[in-house]
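Sequence in, structure out. Go.
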Amino acid sequence: MKRYVLIVVATLTLLLGLPAGIFAQGDSATEKEVRDALEKYRTALMQRDAAALKQIWADDYTFINGAGEILTKDQRLANLDSGATSLDTITIGGDLKVRVYGDAAVSTSRATLKGQYSGKPVSGDYQSMLVWVKKPAGWQLVANQVTPITGKP
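Output:
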């Protein structure tokens, strides 16, 4: 029993002594890859580039828009094709954070949007969260959500 307690204490001491970011850490090159993928995504949305978006969105992609509607890749592509989704401007805030977890990453930031999602006007500031997975062809978006910022920051 003493040996077990000693092992637990030693393990906790080692873990508590590690830098906090070690469990969610990516090297700067990997973080840059995700930031580049985000910029490619932003540009493809504004240009309504369906071919690029088909590659960026994973087949099982899920989107939750500012109205709380859940959309699949096929639904988003149909909205893009019909013109129901068209974003004139997407500005990513300077608060962009990217956290890498092996072959997955989460990016969060404030985003200013102007245009429409699913035929509904959008304009203003949103909190945005995107979940990325590294596939053989590069980083793909598996899920994202935008939430309107209604209160003061």
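Check: Strands lie at 57-64, 70-72, 86-92, 97-101, 104-117, 120-135, 138-148. Residues 40 and 52 are 8 Å apart (CA to CA).
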